[in-house]
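2024-03-11 09:14:02 DEBUG pipeline.ingest accepted 1 chain
2024-03-11 09:14:02 DEBUG pipeline.ingest length=453
2024-03-11 09:14:03 DEBUG pipeline.predict start
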Amino acid sequence: MAQKVEAQGGKGGNQWDDGSEHDAVTKIQVAASGNGIQYVQFSYVKNGQTIEAPLRGVKGRSIPADPFVINHPEEHLVSVQGWYNPEGLTIEGLKFISNKKTSDVIGFNEGTPFTLQVQDKKIIGFHGSANDYAVHSLGAYFAPLITSTTPLTPATKQEAVGGVGGDVWDDGVHNGVRKVNVGQGQDGVSCINVVYEKGSQEVEGGEHGKKTLLGFETFEVDADDYIVAVQVTYDKIFGQDSEIITSITFKTFKGKTSPPYGLESGNTFVLKERNGGKLLGFHGRANESLHALGAYFATTSTPLSPAKKLPAVGSDEGTEWDDGAYDGVKKVCVGQAQDGISVVKFVYDKGSEVVTGDEHGKSTLLGFEEFELDYPSEYITTVDGTYDKIFASEASVITMLRFKTNKRTSTPFGLEAGTAFVLKEEGHKIVGFHGKVSDLLHKVGVHVLPITN
C-alpha cells in the first residue's frame, strides 16, 4: 500500500502512471536535449520478475545518458532531485539517489528545484505527465523499508505441531528468514534446511531430517519482505511410528504465498502471531522424516496508529451497528430492496485471518451483489452514495453505495437518488463499517487507518 507523492513540474502533457505494484526500481533511462528532459523510462522488479515500463516522452536525436542501475535487493532508490522551467513548464534536469550511490545531473540543474523523497521509505514506482515534446512533470510512489534492524519485541515461541516421533531440534532466534529449503520424501516432508539473516550475515540452520533423491525445493524471501505465517499439514502415514509433516506453505508480509511443498493431507495448522509478526526461527522434531514444526515470532515495537471512526451519514432511524476496525476489507456484499439498500455484509482481514461480519438489515429475494478486492494489494479509499426519504418510510434510507479502491471503482449498488455523500479521509484506507439499520439501511459510516505500506 504505497504512498503517492504528487508530480512536480509543469501542468502540460498527458498523464501517465507506472503504478505502485512493484517491489523496487531497478533501472532508469533518461535522455535530455537543450529543451530539457526528452524522455524517462523505468524498469521495476516484482516477485523476482523484471518489468520494463513504457517510454514516457519522445525519442529524439539526443543520446541517452548511461542507465542508472539499482542492484536490488541490496540497493534501493531513495530520492529524486529535479529542476523545472516555470515558463516552459518542462523538466530541465534530474538526479537520482540510491542508498549506495548518486547519478550525475541529467540535463540542467537550472530553474525551480524539487525533491521527491519520504523519510525511511524507498521509491517503487513513478507517475507524471509528458507529450511528444518533453517530460512535463514527475511524481513517485513510496513504500516502507523493512529491514532486520527494525525494533522487535522479544520473540515468542509457537509450539511445534505434528507428531511426537524423532529428535528435538531448534534453530533458535535470528533477525529473519531469507530462504527455506524443503526436502520431500515419498509420503511427506523429509527434511528442512533454513537460511537465516543474522546481522549482516546469512547462516544455515542445518538439515533436520534426511534428504532424499527428490532433493530440495526452495522458497526465497525478498530482502524487504518477511514471513508472517506458515501453514502446516500433518498425517499418520503407514510405516511411521507417529504423524509426519505432509506439506508446508509460506505467506509473507507483502502478500507473496508459496506453493504447498509436499502433499496437503491430514490435519491443518497455521503458525503465526495473533496480532501479526515476523518469523525469526524454526524448531521441531525429525529423524528420517520431519515429524513436527514450530516457529519463533516477534512483532515490531512501533505502536500502531489507532483506527479513526468517521461519522455515519443518513438518518437516525433503526438500530445502531458497528463491525469495528480490522487490517483491511476483502469483500463487500450489498443486498437491495425495491426502494433502497436492505442489507450489507463485509468480509475483513485481521492478522491473516478472514473475519466475516454480521448481516446488517434484512435480505430480500433479490439476494446479494458482491465486490471482491484483490487483498492485500487493493484497499478501499472512498465510499460514496445517496440517501433519500422514500414512500411509506418515516426516515431516509441509503439508496445507493459505491466503493472506490486504489485500483478501480465498483459499479453503483442501488439507484442513485436523493442527497449525495462521500466517506473518505485523505491518506487513509477504510478498514471497517458502522451505521444504523432496520429492514433497510438508514445510515453508514467507516473506520479508517493511515496508508503505511
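2024-03-11 09:14:41 DEBUG pipeline.report The mean pLDDT is 89.
2024-03-11 09:14:41 DEBUG pipeline.predict end
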